[in-house]
Amino acid sequence: METETAAQKNMPDFTALARENVAQMPPYIPGKPVLEVQQEYGLDKVVKLSSNECPFPLPPGLGEAVSKAISGCNRYPDAMCRHLRTKVAQKLGVYESSLIFSNGAEEGIRLIAQIFLNQGEKTVIPTPIFDAYSTATLLMGAVPVKLPLKNDRIDLHAILNVCEQDRDVKLVWLCSPSNPTGDVIKKQEMDAFLARLPRNIMVVLDEAYREFITDDQAVKTEDYLNSDPRVVGLRTFSKAYGLAGLRVGYVVAHPQVIALVNNVKLPFNVNSAALAAAEYMLDEAVFAAKHVALAVSERKFMRRELCNRGLSVPESQGNFLFVKLPDSLQLDGSALFHRLLPKGFVVRPGTAFGVPGYFRMSLGTREDNVTFLQEFDRALP
Ligand SMILES: Cc1ncc(COP(=O)(O)O)c(C=O)c1O
Questions:
Q1: Beta strand residue intervals within the chain, DSSP E
Q2: Is 106 in the pocket of ligand 1 (CB under 6 A)?
Q3: Domain check: are 148 and 167 in the same one?
Q4: What is the pLDDT of residues 244-258, one digit of tens each?
Q5: pLDDT at 1 over 70
Q6: Residue 83 covered by a domain
């Protein structure tokens, strides 16, 4: 039996010492690393389809660009990410003063929550959706108001009703394409939404998957920089540009909002290697374009294949699909996850989003997608 050390005996109750909001937060449960799955099941290859990452190897020139940056790592990085900011501003056709960079879009979510949410204020969160909005809300001692989707789409009417009736609502989290459904908000819908939304409510538009959109009616933050500065856009290099491991995202917003982000962000939140990589990938451009084209063709192929098997799969504008398992199968997303894992496929069970009858899968290469379908067929009862 383990004996209690002197240090353990004198240990304070850290949970009691923590800020109340922090102590009450649900723990973050990380996914199993690929290597661990490989070792546990003795597999040569594991296909990770659980985090909407890029499935292709990155271009060879990237390594050289990053090595060059690393040789200058005795110096702090540029806190304003000036070179990258100029390139992104040109690409989006926005002023540089409308951009600020973050440690992935997820840091952008935290920063916006830190800026706008006081204890007890409310945020509206369509559900199921990316869980970072709820975490950031809770961290600030604010209250998430979760509203269900309607026909797998964000229900802007229901959100408006809450915002019009509850004066404590400070911010609405929107996502387009939304994770996990892949649905986009149309510009016309957003215009009508903003026209009715009370003036003092902020709107975050998470566009982590922006580059995968083919629907030309879809909303984009740039459309509102002049007309409605309540809209704050979030983007990332983790998805189309394949840099999830290096952590670069950015906020697109009115310069006054950008100035507030600058007040709260850590000065060196984007490191030198990440900066160099993002600049390289933006200049290179071919890789991201090819990756997007493949994701678009794979999402059509896989949706058709899954629908042909009698599954319900909403049309996705992202690099992932959200799949409903028919009740008749008596197999939920978590059971499917456990059946596919020993076969070397990792999907995201719907339990992670509070919808156990679903699973979300990223789109892999054609070869991996075809093998996935074979294993999926075998996994069904
Ligand atoms: C909707 C959404 N926003 C943000 C992120 C996080 O992106 P980043 O890697 O830039 O932090 C994700 C990651 O999966 C996401 O799905």
A1: 47-48, 99-102, 122-127, 143-148, 169-175, 202-206, 231-236, 249-252, 320-324, 345-346, 348-349, 358-362
A2: yes
A3: yes
A4: 999 999 999 999 999
A5: no
A6: yes
> Which CATH number does the domain housing residue 348 bear?
3.90.1150.10
The protein residue with its alpha carbon nearest to ligand 1, atom 16, reads 179
Identify the CA nearest to 139 among candidates 116, 164, 163, 105: 116
From 239, 269, 281, the mutation candidate for ligand 1 (largest count of ligand atoms within 8 A of CB) is 239
199 & 142 share domain: yes
Does the Cβ of 249 fall within 6 Å of ligand 1? yes
| CB 101 within 8 Å of CB 84 | yes
Amino acid residing at 301: F
What CATH number does residue 130 fall under? 3.40.640.10
Q: Considering 239, 260, 284, which residue would you say is the last residue of a domain?
A: 284
Decide: 52 in ligand 1 pocket, CB within 6 A. Answer: yes
Looking at residue 318, its amino acid is: G
Note the residue count of the chain: 381
pTM to 2 decimal places: 0.96
Question: pLDDT tier at 143 (50, 70, 90 boundaries)?
Answer: very high
Q: Are residues 278 and 360 in the same domain?
A: no
* Beta bridge mates, 126: 147
- pLDDT confidence band for 378 (50 / 70 / 90): very high
pLDDT of residue 179: 98
- The model's confidence at residue 30, banded by pLDDT at 50, 70 and 90, is confident
